[in-house]
Specification:
Elements (H helix, E strand, L loop, with lengths): L2 H12 L12 H14 L11 H8 L3 H13 L3 E3 L5 E3 L4 H24 L3 H20 L2 H18 L3 H15 L11 H17 L3 H26 L24
Antiparallel strand pairs: 1-2
Helix pairs in contact: 1-3, 2-4, 3-4, 5-7, 5-8, 5-9, 5-10, 6-7, 6-9, 7-8, 9-10
């Protein structure tokens, strides 16, 4: 692939995430956000090159904030360093996804337990409101809206845990899940199950039963893992004889939020 082709591909991928000129004081945050969102939306795909000089030119910044931003994305699992000191968008293997959901099950359970223990009335009200919006989106068959509301529901729960480290870890889990090619809300019957599982967690929070909230959150994640793996197995190419990879590059443009 020629240098010009790589540059043009990066420019096209980053175009939706560039607006006003980036000020020097916020360059690292702006570059990190632009690259992260391009990866999460699928505009930058697995194995795409992240060339510092090209990104710096496209975003009109120096190479220093680009280098820092790429290092941050490596820490988040969205990019990987290569042997020639460059970087590419990271791939997710089937093994990565299985490991991710094992961790997620425990972290989401902990978030529910800690949030319940804090007796935050506003949390209950906000989760109820998001739940109502999810019901409306479900009735309208709005899969993307459902998935985005689901992200809000889980974000609010993890924020309510009051644990900044847990919040940070679950944010990284969210980044990985958002990169998956489809939303499990598109799976027949899964939307109804998700809404019921959310209600079970919320009922435990209302009852101030931290152990039950943790248990229901973990059940929710186990069911999410089963649905996710079923989706990925359905999407595998017939030529794949193992569970190592799937064709992550098949989806084009902005994806439905996979969650």
């Amino acid at each position: 692939m020629s240098d010009e082709t790589v540059y043009n591909g990066l420019a096209a991928a980053l175009a939706p995430y560039t607006g006003d000129p980036i000020s020097r004081g916020r360059a690292v945050a702006a570059v990190t956000t632009a690259l992260r969102e391009a990866i999460l939306d699928g505009a930058l795909r697995p194995d795409d090159w992240l060339r510092e000089d090209d990104i710096a030119s496209i975003l009109s910044v120096s190479r220093t904030p680009v280098r820092t931003a790429i290092s941050q994305l490596v820490e988040e699992g969205l990019a990987r360093k290569t042997t020639n000191q460059g970087a590419t968008v990271a791939r997710l293997s089937m093994e990565d996804i299985i490991a991710l959901y094992v961790v997620r099950e425990n972290l989401e359970g902990l978030a529910a337990r800690l949030a319940t223990a804090r007796h935050d009335v506003r949390l209950i009200e906000e989760l109820e409101r998001i739940g109502d919006e999810m019901e409306q989106a479900a009735a309208a068959g709005a899969i993307t809206e459902l998935a985005n509301l689901n992200l809000r529901w889980h974000r609010r729960l993890r924020e309510a845990s009051g644990n900044v480290y847990l919040d940070r870890f679950l944010a990284q889990v969210e980044y990985a899940v958002r990169r998956m090619p489809t939303s499990t809300f598109a799976r027949p019957g899964r939307t109804k199950e998700i809404l019921a599982e959310h209600d079970a967690v919320l009922s435990a929070i209302r009852a101030r039963d931290a152990a039950a909230a943790e248990n229901h959150a973990q059940i929710h994640m186990r069911n999410a893992r089963s649905a996710r793996l079923a989706d990925l197995l359905d999407a595998r190419s017939p030529s794949e004889e193992h569970l190592g990879t799937w064709d992550h590059g098949k989806d084009v443009g902005r994806r439905s939020v996979g969650y």
